[in-house]
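agent> Task received from the user: take the single chain below, predict its 3D structure, and emit structure tokens. No templates, no multimer pairing.
agent> Plan: (1) validate residues, (2) run structure prediction, (3) serialize to tokens, (4) report one or two observations.
agent> Step 1 OK, no nonstandard residues flagged.
tool_call: predict_structure(input=
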Amino acid sequence: MTKTSHFSARALKTAAVPLLLASLAACASPGFKADVSRFQAQLPAPAGETFAVVADDPALAGGLEFALYADLVEAQMERLGYKQAEPDQASLLVRFDYGVDNGRERVRTTNTGFRDPFWDPWYGGYYRSRFWRPRSAWGYGFYDPWFGGSEVQSYTVYTSGIDLKIDRAANGERLFEGKAQAVSTSNRLQHLVPNLVEAMFVDFPGNSGETLRITIKPEETKVRRVEN
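)
tool_result: status=success, residues=228
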């Protein structure tokens, strides 16, 4: 890639990040809930450490979409005090992956007095570790609470997630592993991934082995422990 094309792609990616974050703030207003699990082994303090975000899935390497989400991870790492560097010069490699599954259908009957298990968003537990990346137009199911009568409605529930791993570049030693997962009626990665990244870095690196349920709102973040 020439310097000109590299600069153009980088400029486009950088310009898109504020728009993505603005969209995130608007979409997240009702509260975005994610389960975050983190494990660490002597993650070094930021002083003197450099990092590079790389694709954990080789199929994502070099992609513009991956680069956009990687920028969000980079911003969080820099906020913590780590310094960004090229992958061949960084002391830490931050391996990042993301995705959403292909959904599963739910059916509910309205105005019956029975509780729909989906509206406890953690119904069904964690999803499989391998990600599904939709290639067609996205869609979502919905429930209109103002529509009268008893009706049978179907909708699609998606489980999304990100994986974050930090390795010592010199010897490959694993220093951190984290997973953030959410259930929603949307499979739009442009909305899901930024929220998941933000959830991952709440009180980072957290207590090793602990799972937290994190609610992200425009002006506040709520955290509570999840009983395993």
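agent> Step 4: summary for the user.
Confidence is low (pLDDT under 50) at residues 1-29, 115-129, 134-144.
agent> Done.
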